[in-house]
Amino acid sequence: xxxxxxxxxxxxxxxxxxxxxxxxxxxxxxxxxxxxxxxxxxxxxxxxxxxxxxxxxxxxxxxxxxxxxxxxxxxxxxxxxxxxxxxxxxxxxxxxxxxxxxxxxxxxxxxxxxxxxxxxxxxxxxxxxxxxxxxxxxxxxxxxxxxxxxxxxxxxxxxxxxxxxxxxxxxxxxxxxxxxxxxxxxxxxxxxxxxxxxxxxxxxxxxxxxxxxxxxxxxxxxxxxxxxxxxxxxxxxxxxxxxxxxxxxxxxxxxxxxxxxxxxxxxxxxxxxxxxxxxxxxxxxxxxxxxxxxxxxxxxxxxxxxxxxxxxxxxxxxxxxxxxxxxxxxxxxxxxxxxxxxxxxxxxxxxxxxxxxxxxxxxxxxxxxxxxxxxxxxxxxxxxxxxxxxxxxxxxxxxxxxxxxxxxxxxxxxxxxxxxxxxxxxxxxxxxxxxxxxxxxxxxxxxxxxxxxxxxxxxxxxxxxxxxxxxxxxxxxxxxxxxxxxxxxxxxxxxxxxxxxxxxxxxxxxxxxxxxxxxxxxxxxxxxxxxxxxxxxxxxxxxxxxxxxxxxxxxxxxxxxxxxxxxxxxxxxxx
Length: 575
What we know:
Blueprint: H1 15-26, H2 47-58, H3 60-63, E1 70-75, E2 80-84, H4 89-96, H5 107-110, H6 116-121, E3 125-128, E4 140-148, E5 155-164, H7 172-189, H8 193-208, E6 212-216, E7 221-223, H9 225-228, H10 233-244, E8 251-254, E9 257-266, E10 270-276, H11 293-300, E11 316-320, E12 329-336, H12 343-351, E13 356-359, H13 366-384, E14 388-391, H14 398-409, E15 416-420, H15 426-433, E16 435-441, H16 449-465, E17 472-473, H17 475-482, H18 489-507, E18 511-512, H19 534-546, H20 551-558, H21 562-572
Parallel strand pairs: 12-15, 12-16, 13-14, 14-15, 17-18
Antiparallel strand pairs: 1-2, 1-5, 3-4, 4-5, 6-7, 6-10, 8-9, 9-10, 11-16
Helix pairs in contact: 2-7, 11-16, 14-15, 16-17, 16-18, 19-20, 20-21
């Protein structure tokens, strides 16, 4: 019969110690048999955790020298993957008792300890002397704290600081927590580019606004405090399903009623959702809804080199800005999207044919854009009551953006429509949030079936302009075009399709296929600074340089397969 063993002198209020002893005993351990598990050479290593922790742990070599303390980093399986120690007596004692790199320190192997108990409880734990279940550990005091992935909230490992009982200090806890915080911050940087970008955008959004915000990625679910106060797990599950199935509209029925939704696409698969609850909705704020794909494709055919974008296309979503009832006005409208997505055309469509259109990019400087273009236009609008379009407000300085935000919040009867790229600067966010309605335009590759319709319409229009008669584009051609990197959106698309038609006419063919694409549209290129893939590109280049160009060694250093490395090198145009 298994006997439950308890500490001889339990500390009042430390119930977690008693519980950890119970868990250890239930695994069949005894204080004499409990020992660290021997290193397993076949065990896989947590490369992401090791990479995130490496610079943090390296900095501790000098800090812990001659302190008589030993720091352990373990993965979620409780295996020690890195230790920081000096030649003091405590390090030698721990090594003789099996605490070394590769050792397993789970509760079912060695009883309660700073690694195993922190992983078991997902909380920080302080254990000293006789509170240890295993006799081999009763000469020591330790504090352990779990490491949690900030993106997925999954447990990825733990950190433990161990010293002698006589030297034990409650200062262990803040020291270890700081180390864990540093590792978790770097762990975000090792995530996939899309998830990393989604995390940063969510943090920026919730830092500068009290809006109820949720974020959904492949492995990421994030929710702000204001959304968690109103939504339950079923609501979050429903939102995620709708996002994954691409069925999320301008509103959704949740447990709290009909909730307005403003969705922004982050990267390829990430979504940032701003929610407006029933008691926050303002009846005076209009909701623009996208027209049918047919009308969107029809509008796309009128794209010109100056402003290539369809208005009213289903590749956009427009809704009241969450929280618009506080400080925002229904007479101000924001149009947000990447370059070439149709911001100007959409803005002119919202403002009407009589609107004054001011392009801030035509100014020589940000100061001139405000003082010589924006201010006179806003002044004249106040006198004439004429709708106004201010293009590219993200080009303005922060101080002028805040002045514009104040002007938009106090807008009178005349409509003001502003356009902007998605910019994380708080001043840009403040100006956009001052608008009662926001239209979000998506790039071509995120518009689904509509993308192929836009390509077909544009091909027909360009063929008619060039007098080429009927031209057929294959499905493979449409797929390849929609997957292209288009630095200037639909403007770039029109240029590439024009080249394709010219080349097709030269060969006497009336069919566009993948081989019709110009060479500049078929070769890889290094990502530009600021793009989501830049980190991957830089990491691959650095690994190849450090391995003298040997790809197998570079793949091992990066922790990926050679097949994955070759695919990414082809994508980036690396030879």
